[in-house]
Amino acid sequence: MNERYPIGEFETPDHPSADQIHQWLEEWLEEWLEEIRTFPARLLETVKSLSEHDLDKTYREGGWTIRQVVHHVADSHMNAYTRFKLALTEENPTIRPYAEDKWAELSDSRSPIASSLIIISSLHERWVNLLESLTEEQLARTFVHPDSGSVALAENIGIYAWHGNHHLAHIQHALQH
């Protein structure tokens, strides 16, 4: 198993066509939305009874602690939600990336995870409400990530469904060691 990518990497074609986006909507959108909808409960179930010692376990040598992973998910999904709103209200905006590794080293990433669990739960409730309301035309809207180029909102739903599962697998792997 690849400890960095325990569920594999998310894969989509570069610059998906309108037909590919339509196919994703037909085949994957409901599953992706369900993954995003249920992620907060699945995360809480996994971490609710962890000790401070458990929260300081890592999923691989040199990797983040479980505590840092939970805080990272809150940070990342807040950024994702903002990117969706920018793409829905601006024409193909260029979004600002952030230094995830440096954010994970800030003092708040060593704090109790309760606040991040509340953020994730509340954010996902709003996020799913927004995502379920999107039309096919809105799902085809894009933003530009300076490192990875143009990203359609439909594709980004899949990326963040994967992202939650990816980090949940990191936590589960850390707990096995």
Tell me about this structure:
A hairpin with a 3-residue loop joins strand 1 and strand 2. This protein is globular. It has a two-stranded antiparallel sheet. The chain is 61% helix and 5% strand. The chain is mainly alpha-helical.
Distance between the termini: 14 Å
Proportion in helices: 55-70%
Number of strands: 2
State the strand order across the main sheet. 1-2
| Helical stretch tally | 8
What descriptive keywords fit this protein?
8 helices, about 180 residues, mainly alpha, about 5% strand, two-stranded antiparallel ribbon
Outline:
61% of the residues lie in helices and 5% in strands. It has helices at residues 18-27, 29-47, 52-55, 66-89, 100-103, 114-133, 136-139, 153-175; strands at residues 142-145, 149-152.
SSE map:
Blueprint: H1 18-27, H2 29-47, H3 52-55, H4 66-89, H5 100-103, H6 114-133, H7 136-139, E1 142-145, E2 149-152, H8 153-175
